[in-house]
Design a protein that fits this description.
By secondary structure, the protein is of the alpha/beta class. The protein has a single domain, classed as TIM Barrel (Alpha-Beta Barrel). Helices cover 40% and strands 16% of the residues. The protein has ten helices and ten strands. Helix 3 links the parallel strand 1 and strand 2. Helix 3 runs parallel beside helix 10 and helix 9 packs parallel to helix 10. The longest helix is centred in the first third of the chain and has 15 residues. The protein is globular and about 45 Å long.
Length: 268
Amino acid sequence: MAHSTILYLFSQFLVHFLPMGGKMEASTPSKLALNRPLIRVEDSLIKHVYLSFDDGPVLGTKNSIVVCSNHNASATFFEVGLHQSRSNAGKKLYKNILEKDSLFVLCNHSFSHAYGKYKAFYHAPRAALRDFMLAQKLLQPKNNILRLPGNNAWNIKETERASGLVRPLVRLLDSAGFNIIGWDMEWRFNKKGRPVQSPEAIVALVDSLFKLNQTVTKNHLVILMHDHMFKTSVDSIQLDKMIALLQRNPNYHFEKLTQYPGLKHSMN
């Protein structure tokens, strides 16, 4: 190699690696980091799981409360006004949810649950609105969140998902100041009201939906269940196992739906 070429390469080394002032130091990543301001980055590994139970207070509500309490797992109970008002047992379960407000939240699931006649209920949106307002007056939840009976509709800030059947009611409820929250996945039940999927299958579905980003809001997942699914000890053990399996993942945090992002309107 020619002497002039060697000198040129050495000069380039000095330009690129020797700091101004002439003293050569090793610029290691750790030393460079000391001179940079700290930037706080939100931990994207955290996944928020919302356990939600529909149609109480009924047989199974008590077991749902006990299992979630034993795991210190936050949950949301969508209650039906008619179920709460027709028995002392229902009123007692309703009070149990309200008294555990650090862990649970109670939300409006209508007064009548459409009496099971969903098409007729939604074809009369103003009557349906009155049904929800009656439930709000009776249940007196400390929030403005509700769920439609038998229909997975959403209406929160920047998110509106509603079929043509329920859209007129959804807009009336929005004007009345409500947030409508549906679900990302459901733990289904059979004709006898018992859970269909295994706890392991439910957890696998949770993992998959988070991984594929197939939830209404990224890193937030709402699970729909029904209180009556857990009325027997055998079935409540399934709920217990599902929660325990989810809690093995340190990145899964249980939340109440009052903490769901993007809620609109001020809370009551």
